[in-house]
Amino acid sequence: MQSSNISAKQPKDFRAGVAQSNRRPNTKPGTLTEAKREQSEEVKKYLPSILASQEKLREAKARAVIFSQPIVSHKDKSIIYPRTINVAQGQAGSFKSRVCELICSTLLWITGSPVKLEVFTASKEKPITICYVDTERNLTEQLPYALQSIQTKAGFKIDEHPPGFDYISLMAVPRKERFNALREYLDYVRGKYQTHIFIVLDVLTDCCQDFNRTDDSLELIDFLNLTINEFDVTFLCIIHENPGSAKARGHLGTELNNKASSVMQIGYEQDASGKDTDLIRVKFLKCRNTRKHEPFYLKYCDDFKGLVLADDAEVNKLSEQRKAKAMPSEVAEKIEKYLSEKPMKASDLIQILTKDFDASERTIEERLKEIIDGDTGFHIDAKPCRLEKVKEGRTVFYSLKPRE
Q1: Average pLDDT, the chain
Q2: If you write DSSP's letter for every residue of 338-363 in order, what string do you get?
Q3: Which residue from 238, 256, 234 is spatially nearest to 190, judged by alpha carbons?
Q4: Do residue 141 and residue 235 come from a single domain?
């Protein structure tokens, strides 16, 4: 009775729909239902490209793999390889853009130029075009000055227009349209230049509508990934860190670090009292093609009007001061090294750290507690982690656990 009343109250089309859904599909053995037919069409839509990539893999697998040489290095450390996504992250005002501009100058540098660049070296195996995409600086002074700095350090005059140097600003493009504008520009430069293209995105978070939304972030990251696989392109993405944190901003920052081949963290080094110094540390959070490099240090030079390598004596002096005080940040660097692969007994870790810092066990235990209580950030393959102290039976362990 209840069922009949409900049926009587329903619209006619609803009842018809129910009746239709209760019928058995009018199909014969071996035929496709409508749902299966649609699924089959979807398979046909992607299968050709999947099989084409499979054939490429078969051909590549059948011959010796010759790895690409790095296009940017620091001394003997390979930093950026062709057809990869790379990241420079740091707090606001930490000279991220200056470091990336120096990389651009090195790639653009004229052989034999009287201007000497000592921080980075660039491969000259094949021509490279630099495409600098800016989203933050004004078009009257800030961006023109940065572009002048790039080309004068490369050996050009400010009124010259180097053929391998392209640049745009997305400031005038509404944020919600910048992703599409970026795609249009990259299509344009791929048609304009028949060289390897080195693209700097400064800053990446301004190239998508909402860097905290999963769909917006993944759309941009997938686009970068697709581009490096289909075209002769390399990306250097500049991104801010969250204030007071070592994490790149938003969901976009998380996904970017997962997909990147190289992640550099750039920021001021602190002295033994925790105050910023003039030294700028370039720390490697991720190096997919090599083992993780040791950090190196830069300093702003008024004569050069840019960044140069910091004096070894100054770096060593600061390092000894920090080491003598066993600063939490110094201890954290050692912890990241010792616990990167597996947990360690508390007694073993404390013993090693007391030797590293010539400190008492009590001091090291206090530092470990400060690191845990302060929720200090660590990075294992650019993935954020935290230090945890866990007791298993009678044994205490320290380990680095991924953040949820």
Answers
A1: 88
A2: HSSSS-EEHHHHHHHHHHHHT--HHH
A3: 234
A4: yes
